[in-house]
Automatic annotation (TrEMBL):
It comes from Plectus sambesii. This is Acetyltransferase component of pyruvate dehydrogenase complex. Residues 268-290 have a biased composition (Low complexity). The pyruvate dehydrogenase complex catalyzes the overall conversion of pyruvate to acetyl-CoA and CO(2). It is found in: Mitochondrion. GO terms for cellular component: mitochondrion; pyruvate dehydrogenase complex. Residues 176-294 are annotated as: Disordered. SUPFAM superfamilies: CoA-dependent acyltransferases (SSF52777), Peripheral subunit-binding domain of 2-oxo acid dehydrogenase complex (SSF47005), Single hybrid motif (SSF51230). Gene3D superfamilies: 2.40.50.100, Chloramphenicol acetyltransferase-like domain, E3-binding domain.
Amino acid sequence: MSKIPARSGFLTASIRSGLNGFRLAPATAYPSLSVDSSRCASTSILSPLFGSPPKANSSSSLERHRHNSSQRNLLGCRLYASDSSLPAHNKVPLPALSPTMEMGTIVSWQKKEGDQLSEGDLLCEIETDKATMGFETPEEGYLAKIVVPEGTKDVAIGKLLCIIVEKEESVAAFKDYKPSDSEPASPKKESKSAPESPKKAEPEKKAAPEKSSQSPPPPEPSHKQSSSGGRVGATPYAKKLANEKGVDLKNVQGSGPGGRILASDITSAPSGESAGAARGASAEGGQQAGDYTDVPLSNMRKTIAKRLAQSKSTIPHYYLTSEINMDEVIKVREKLNKLLEKNAGKEDKPQKLSVNDFVVKASALACLRVPEANSFFMDSFVRENHNVDVSIAVSTDSGLITPIVYNAHTKGLATIGSEIASLAKKARDGKLQPHEFMGGTFTVSNLGMFGSVNNFSAIINPPQSCILAVGGAVKKIVPCVEHGYRQVTVMQVTLSCDHRVVDGAVGAQWLKHFKDFLEKPHTMLL
């Protein structure tokens, strides 16, 4: 990173290209606000967040690409800054770590102010709507200032996280640094449109009392702040924060002109005010304070709630249930586990195949037989996927996540079992990478290991068309020609289908293939 002079003009020193790492000549490195992002959509790992590159023959697409490029400069790229009173520094904003991420939580900082940074060092851990992921240092230097402290929740994408400088002696200059762009955009706009202070607003209202219908009345001693229309006077951003935090605006004392509630009133409001609203609501329902605990939603839980509610309300689900004889799978599993134990080293822990490994393999092969079950509904067309990437539902402390076994139809049982065990551990430890859980063409959700669930129905994970719900295996008495009756082990599965893609008869065909593979496991070798 090189110093950029405060005055505009040609740079007096070369800088490093963000595209290929080569040094650029001063004439090449001319500073201009119109320069496009050094990472275009076709090369960026974040390209799914901003769309594909524009077509050459489309002027409108080109304009959208230019607009998206300017957004990438703010959200996904490093921001070099120059200030006459500060050394040259690098502003690092919060990036989008998943396509659905809107905000993040700073779980921990792995570096302290003043620490030397090498490119690729773990800078901090960020909780997204999917998982907790490490954010690596974008370049070498020294961590001069941490702008967003550890534990801060709901940090918007693009908000300044920290400052990095090139030289160690430049760190001290940022000791008392307070960024002007660290606040959200909405409160800034409100503060510009509102009077500078409440003192200037009060005389105006007293001088024109007859225009009470056009201006809100002075604040009353009580906590309730209302305009003449009976609505609570609050800025748009304050209303947004109040809605997210579950705060009743009627119980918040506004500090703005005329008692107007600002965003700062919501963030700094004592817990008793929001709790008071909850107590008032609970009293009407007959609950007493202390009878319940309000648990804040994690980013993952918010995403789960949003996506599943959308799926259930927009996708026409239907369900098909089948009972499968698992005796042959149990026999084959026992033989294969003995073989794995025999081939394992003396110091190695032998791998053990689970029934779920057979379920995943049979699901993938059935999807090859019935491609509709391995398809996406894309509004104006249906996309049939050629590879079967099976998402496996894994329960974690923070919520449900679905890591993926890619190309499950091409892998053996031992490989599938090993990958599932590794992905499940990483999911519970919060160490999954985005590519390990983003995607998938078919989902398997297995609750059989809990021992108390015989069958259930699962909600489809869009844009997928199907999800298989697997219950536990139970003993059952069935008729037998030779002995009159015999005992078998059966397992119930329920296939949830999107009727826009998979008709009832097609779903039944998939279940038939799936059942055949499990009841005759040797056919999975063909």
